[in-house]
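Appendix B. Raw example, untouched.
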Amino acid sequence: MRCGIGRYARCMRSPSGFEYAVRGDDVVIRHHGVTATVLRGAPAQEFLAHAAQGDAQLLMARVTGNYRRGNERTARRHPRNQA
């Protein structure tokens, strides 16, 4: 199955498992039931405005930093990166 253009294109699943709750002026973002981050003030209002317009799962992944997929763990354990 080919999902992209180019020789090294790989299929990447879209983010899932995120949910958010509004508590007063705060937005609590959870990933698989565990609190990932809490947004307060202007970032919370901006998040809510963008979440209403587009893909909330992708937006929550970007906000929490859980959007990278690949060999991060493997590269971290490589001897070259142990310093």
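End of appendix B.
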